[in-house]
Amino acid sequence: MRNRFHGIARPAGLAAFLLLPLVMAPCAQAAAGYFVLGYGPYAHQSAGASAAVGFDAFVGATNPAKLPYVGTRLDLGMLAFMPYRRITRTGSETPFDIQSKSRNDLFIVPDGAYARRIDPTWSWGVTLYGNGGLNTEYHETTNVPGTNANPERCKNRPGNFFGGCGEAGFDLLQLVVAPTLAARVNDVHSFGVTPLLAYQQMRVYGLQAFEAISRDADKVTNNGYEGAYGSGVRVGWLGRLTPWFDLGATYATKIYMQDFHEYRGLLAGGSFDIPANFSVGMALKDQDVTLALEVHRIFFGNVPALANGELNSLTDPTTPLGDKQGSGFNWHHQTNYRMALMWHATPRLDLRAGFAYGRVPQADSSNNTVTFSMLAPNPALNLTAGFSYQLSPRTEVHFAYGSYRRGEYQGRSAIFQGASEKAEPRVETIYLAWSRHW
To answer: What does the pLDDT average to over 275-304?
Structure first.
């Protein structure tokens, strides 16, 4: 491919590839990579803390061993996810010194769960939830005809932020159906198991510029929506060790997903598996106050599309983009820390607040990671607050507000000599839910 950019440190097609993470910028799932921070009405109020607290019906997404203590219950919720993502490049002395803001700034995500007690020992339930996702849409271009890195495909059109043409974006949605069976073996210990049945859908567009480094140039971008199915399993344990102390632990295997045929020239190995993860948490309780502490670890480093280094396809022509060893995000395993406080303020009102922190999953600030670190925003800090109010002895409503902060990345460009690139993400969330007990 002919180099049509002045001042680019590498061939133009490779330059556009290095900008891929910006298109794949997560919807800023704070302290959890691209995972949703919490699942269900109580976890949304508590910054995701849920291994040993939060006895709603969403146990299939949190800890299946909690199910025997839920009773018979239905929870229906809706998350309003409001991200702001702005990206800027300066100092390249090219038409690519531009600023762009993602136009997608409101996402509505419904979820639901049902739990039923079979007998004093056994319980079953099912949870439907969104595991997470990526979605950005950038429309700004250089406004200069012919400034694209793939004239065969783009003709004389202006280049977008990534060197392709037209609007540029990445839309990934992951949904999980989680049936659960759990047993309370005695007054202290309970165990649960949840098969994880997943569906994901992806669409990529505007990334024509890096087709030249792909193993399959026709399977990189602008191929519409494509779906894939996968499966895994979650197991959990809950110990109610004393009247004032509970301990919980849960582990979810990797969810192995089908390959994306239409985007096999983009993702390393052609697939986008959901990483394995585990949580260990404790709850300290008195009559009206509960303090929850939790550690959550996600194994991003075991998924090639997330873990492979940025330079893999750039420095070795035998590992093109889409190869199992091809370029990825250079994300490593990530550990998140959560703390939540609940106050049973009145017989009908519970108040909750939470705090979560986790270092971003990008491995380091080296040349193998630096552009990804700037252009795949992952706010590291999350604050939540909310309440649950009992309308009647059998019905309850819930409200949670979340604020995601400390996600700005800035540094020298790995693509344009002397240029700087900056990404500024922040997110506000509102979660509403209704519950019914039997």
So the answer is: 96
CA 128 – CA 118 distance, rounded (Å): 20
Segment 241-278, tens digit of pLDDT: 999 999 999 999 999 999 999 999 999 999 999 999 99
Q: Which residues pair with 134 in a beta bridge?
A: 26, 172
From CA 237, how far away is CA 254, in angstroms rounded? 19
pTM as predicted = 0.88
**Rounded (5°) CA angle 100-22-109:** 90
Q: What is the DSSP letter of 218?
A: G
Q: CA-to-CA distance for 195 and 312, rounded, in angstroms? A: 35
Helix (H) / strand (E) element for 337: namely strand 334-346
Spatial contact of 109 and 130, defined as CB atoms under 8 Å apart: yes
* Cα-only R_g, the chain: 23
DSSP class per residue in 73-133: EEEEEEEEEEEEEEEEEESS-STT--EEE-S---EEEEEEEEEEE-SSSEEEEEEEEEEEE
DSSP class of 187:
S
- How would you class 434 by CB atoms within 10 Å of its CB: exposed for 0-12, middle for 13-18, buried for 19 or more? middle
8 Å CB contact between 420 and 98: no
Vertex 38 angle, CA 100 and 402, to 5°: 55
Place of tokens 């509505």: 108
pLDDT the model gives residue 313: 83
Rounding to the nearest 10 degrees, give the CA dihedral for residues 309, 314, 318, 323. 50
Residue 409 in this model has a pLDDT that exceeds 80: no
Q: Which helix (H) or strand (E) holds 305?
A: helix 304-307
SS3 183: strand
The answer to whether 226 and 203 are in contact (CB under 8 A) is: yes
